[in-house]
Write a structure and sequence with these properties.
This protein has 267 residues and is α+β, with helices and mostly antiparallel strands. The protein folds into two domains: 47 residues; 214 residues, Jelly Rolls, CATH 2.60.120. The protein is built from four helices and 15 strands. The strands form two sheets. Strands 1, 3, 4, 6, 10, 11, 12, 13 and 15 form a nine-stranded antiparallel β-sheet that branches. Strands 2-5-14-7-8-9 form a six-stranded antiparallel β-sheet. A hairpin with a 2-residue loop joins strand 3 and strand 4. The chain starts with a helix and ends with a strand.
């Protein structure tokens, strides 16, 4: 018995559609976590996975000769009792009064890692390297060191805050890791430079905004200092003098949290 060509065409089309449907179902099953040997995530786990995470620097402070800096390693210089708190391994500052907390030990050649975040839009803070006794002598609340190399930590909103309060263009600083000398200290900054040539501006905009953790890796060797922000080297300088001194954390008007502070002394 002969078969009509039209009927053959129709049956072939139906078979093709059935095969496509089976392939689609198989592909969707393979995409499920259980098909890949994974544990399905709950809603909370999915939300946590989707949340922003810190982009850790290549140097995370783990390995031989690295040590954690904690409460026993710091001395408050010119704050009050509520300015600095050690909470569950973190260091919290209210930012008020303006001032610093220094390490008990002085450092010359070192590697230093710290994570930090602002809790207020437009927040201002930073860390200092190579701060001398002379630079800290006699400073009162609401004053900052008179020596050292500052590695700045600004929230992105600080630009707007500065412009609104002064009416000026905020072109002499950035919020992505400026490095510059203060007071009696000297440094030849790496380019790109601020308009007046005093600051090393970051080559990339790497920092994250308010309430998000940032990772700084700072290396100081023989008077040269370099900063990595969230895994990428961005700024620094050379010919720093003095090139021995304390490391300081800065309170400058707004709440900031620090964690995972680690240091390794270099020869």
């Amino acid at each position: 018995m002969s078969t009509c060509p039209l009927n053959v065409s129709r049956r072939g089309a139906k078979d093709a559609l059935r095969r496509l449907a089976r392939w689609a179902v198989a592909a969707s099953l393979l995409a499920l976590p259980s098909a890949r040997g994974e544990t399905p995530q709950t809603g909370a786990a999915v939300a946590e996975t989707a949340a922003p995470t810190v982009t850790a620097g290549t140097i995370d402070g783990v390995g031989p000769d690295w040590r954690t800096l904690g409460e026993a390693d710091f001395v408050v210089v010119n704050g009050d009792e509520s300015t600095w708190k050690f909470v569950d391994g973190q260091i919290h500052t209210t930012g008020k009064p303006v001032g610093v907390m220094r390490t008990r030990e002085k450092f010359t050649n070192f590697e230093y890692v710290v994570q930090w975040r602002h809790l207020e839009a437009g927040g201002n803070s930073g860390i200092f390297a190579w701060v001398t006794d002379e630079g800290l002598a006699g400073i009162k609340p609401n004053q900052l060191p008179k020596s050292g190399i500052e590695i700045q930590m600004l929230d992105h909103g600080y630009h707007d805050k500065y412009t609104q309060s002064t009416g000026k263009v905020a072109d002499w600083f950035t919020s992505h890791g400026d490095v510059f000398p203060v007071g009696m200290s000297k440094m030849k900054p790496f380019p790109p430079l601020s308009p007046d040539g005093s600051r090393s501006f970051p080559r990339e905009e790497r920092s994250l905004g308010v309430n998000r953790w940032n990772h700084y890796y700072v290396r100081g060797i023989n008077g040269e200092i370099r900063l990595w922000v969230n895994g990428v080297e961005v700024s620094g300088g050379k010919d720093c003098t003095p090139a021995t001194g304390y490391l300081c954390l800065e309170a400058e008007g707004s709440p900031v949290e620090f964690r995972e502070l680690r240091i390794r002394v270099l020869p």
